[in-house]
Amino acid sequence: SLTQIPLTLIVAATAKNGIGKNGGLPWPMLKKDMGYFARVTKRVPLPKNTGSVQSDALKENILSGTQRNVVIMGRKTWESIPPNFRPLKDRTNIIISTQGRSQLQDIPDDVVVGSDIASALKNLEAMVKDGKSLPVGRAFVIGGSSIYKAALDLPQTNRILLTRISKEYDCDTFFPETLDEHNVESSRWQRKSHAELRDFVGEEVEEGAVPQKTGDEELSLEFQLFGRS
Ligand code: FOL
To answer: Which of 12, 19, 42, 227 sits a CA distance of 20 to 30 A from 197?
Structure first.
């Protein structure tokens, strides 16, 4: 069932795990990262080819757009997205809030609300059954820190897509897990190869430090994948 769907965290963070400042991102718009975020969270994977004739029907389902990925976020992250970009298009948006949807401002009908990740996924499952929402491809957790923390405590969370930002920005919000470049025994999380990253995201990914022009200084990004068994 949907409450058991694998969850992938997607996050951009500084070396000190900074992710936010004053309710928004700490850095100016990083086009290469935002484009990556949008493409990766939208892309529905092709089904594995089992060699059966039934798999052809499954492929047609994908090609005709009958699945959508979901993006799960906390209420503050929802509010941090520019109003003209939310709900994030071509994805089923889920907001986690202790307040009911009636107490939240201007939430469109196709946005799912839940008090925690598990109950939100149950709400979505009911909507899919009723034909009110498309069947789910992948599920991404997009923040912020308390929602990342809740997801990290769930055994169904098995991947982290991290964009490491080279420059240290002043941050007041942090990603709640240490992710080491080197695979140390003590960490539950292991860095995966560039090939595994490319296979998972379904597109070519620039390897190593990727230079980024911002208003003022030079900085670089690195796209990384971590996994846990
Ligand atoms: N993960 C990564 N890698 N980078 C991020 O900036 C990021 N941000 C969040 C979560 N995970 C992330 C949360 N914050 C938009 C804005 C803020 C935001 C997430 C998304 C947003 O407007 N997204 C549009 C892109 C529009 C554009 O291309 O300019 C989208 O359609 O996804």
So the answer is: 19
Give 10-residue mean pLDDT values along the chain (229 residues).
Answer: 96 98 96 97 86 71 81 97 97 95 87 96 95 95 98 97 96 95 81 98 97 87 95
ipTM: 0.98
**Helix (H) and strand (E) counts in the chain:** 6, 11
Q: Where are the alpha helices (DSSP H) in the chain?
A: 31-42, 54-63, 75-80, 117-129, 145-152, 194-201
Ligand 1 centroid from CA 211, angstroms: 19
- Cβ–Cβ under 8 Å, residues 143 and 19: yes
Q: Are 166 and 15 in contact (CB under 8 A)?
A: yes
Give the domains, in start order, of the chain with CATH numbers. Answer: 2-46+54-227 (3.40.430.10)
Q: What is the pLDDT of residue 58?
A: 63
CB 75 within 8 A of CB 106: no
Atom of ligand 1 nearest to the CA of 89: 31
Mutating to test ligand 1, I would choose from 37, 169, 173, 206 the residue with most ligand atoms within 8 A of its C-beta, which is 37
Say what the pLDDT of residue 63 is.
61
Q: What is d(CA 204, CA 149) in angstroms, rounded to the nearest whole number?
A: 29
